[in-house]
Write a sequence for this structure.
């Protein structure tokens, strides 16, 4: 099969909307068209294709493409992984067409150029110059669903995977710097149920905003406690961070607020149990809950995502550092690495800057084109040939 040009592959991937959204079903697109397009290209190169529906998603799919010259060798080799979805975009802030590559100032603009549909274009382009018949170990390509909201695709794949590569690379935008560890993520919705009424007679109502004030006071104390009790010097922000991300409540100045909601984000260190944060938050709010029984409700907005760490002494990490001539670093954002790291040593490494992720006029600088292709080819040769 003759592949389209690199820029055409990139363009075709960007042109397919694969937005993920938890709260707005109309903004939650299926990734089926993109998955089938990738499957067609990889199948044309001789890869075996598996497309699997991901449970608890809105018509989303994982793709696993595998090339192996010996069916008896099922372990080892390399897994190159990326997510197929993007975040929504703010039409009023974009000056370029999100669904078309726009080349300007030595940059390619488009939704998913950096984060991270473009990584699949790099993989396909890199395979042009490799004789796949020379592979001694399997090469796997994984495209997952719903990374931007629930990471359901990666979680489902990790639960059911039969393969065990020597190394997994997740092509998130890291400026081609290998990342060996990152923090986990928890998001809670805290809902205060008050009792509405006319503002002229406060005693006949219960103001949810006032109760939320007490909730926030307790949370800020917890924020300081987490900072004091947990520390990992491997991170630029060496403690668990807490962010009060959104608050809404009330509808009029002359009405007692009957409901108030707060969205809370905590970034946990790899050594912490992300699932325990729910109980920790509830315990911190216990004084308010006891004072106002059945009026303070804590829920997980999404399932907690653990932190991850690939050990410094991992042979796979050492080989990747040697190949790139760069020491691995740590970051504060989250990826699918906690799931794929259960299968094999996982390193996050890809073109573009994380500063472009989730931003209007997202782009990948063209300075990454040649180095990324060289890096992918080097990884394949090291782990598969």
């Amino acid at each position: 099969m003759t592949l389209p040009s690199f820029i055409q592959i990139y363009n075709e991937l960007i042109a397919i909307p694969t937005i993920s959204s938890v709260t707005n079903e109309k903004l939650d697109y299926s990734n089926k068209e993109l998955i089938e397009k990738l499957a067609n290209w990889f199948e044309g190169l001789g890869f075996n294709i598996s497309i699997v529906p991901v449970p608890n998603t809105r018509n989303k799919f994982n793709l696993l493409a595998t090339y192996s010259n010996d069916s008896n060798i099922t372990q080892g080799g390399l897994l190159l992984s990326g997510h197929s979805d993007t975040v929504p975009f703010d039409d009023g802030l974009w000056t370029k067409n999100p669904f078309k590559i726009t080349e300007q100032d030595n940059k390619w603009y488009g939704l998913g150029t950096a984060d991270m549909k473009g990584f699949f274009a790099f993989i396909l382009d890199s395979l042009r110059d490799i004789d796949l018949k020379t592979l001694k170990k399997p090469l796997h390509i994984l495209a997952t669903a719903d990374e931007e909201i629930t990471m359901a695709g990666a979680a489902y794949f990790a639960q059911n995977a039969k393969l065990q590569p020597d190394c997994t690379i997740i092509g998130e935008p890291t400026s081609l710097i290998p990342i060996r560890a990152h923090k986990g993520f928890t998001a809670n919705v805290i809902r205060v149920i008050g009792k509405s009424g006319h503002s002229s007679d406060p005693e006949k109502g219960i103001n949810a905003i006032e109760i939320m004030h007490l909730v926030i006071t307790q949370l800020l104390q917890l924020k300081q406690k987490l900072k004091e009790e947990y520390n990992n010097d491997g991170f630029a922000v060496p403690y668990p961070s807490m962010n009060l991300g959104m608050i809404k409540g009330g509808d009029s100045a002359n009405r007692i607020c009957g409901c108030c909601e707060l969205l809370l984000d905590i970034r946990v260190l790899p050594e912490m149990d992300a699932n325990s944060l729910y109980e920790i938050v509830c315990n911190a709010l216990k004084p308010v809950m006891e004072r106002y029984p059945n009026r303070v409700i804590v829920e997980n907005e999404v399932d907690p995502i653990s932190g991850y760490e690939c050990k410094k002494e991992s042979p796979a990490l050492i080989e990747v550092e040697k190949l790139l001539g760069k020491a691995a670093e740590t970051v504060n954002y989250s990826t699918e690495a906690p799931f794929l790291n259960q299968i094999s040593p996982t390193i996050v490494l890809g073109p573009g800057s994380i500063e472009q992720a989730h931003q209007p006029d997202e782009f990948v600088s063209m300075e990454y084109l040649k180095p990324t292709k060289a890096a992918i080819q080097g990884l394949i040769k090291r782990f598969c040939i």
The chain has two domains: 6-182+307-384, 184-300. Residues 184-300 form a domain with the Alpha-Beta Plaits fold (CATH 3.30.70.360).
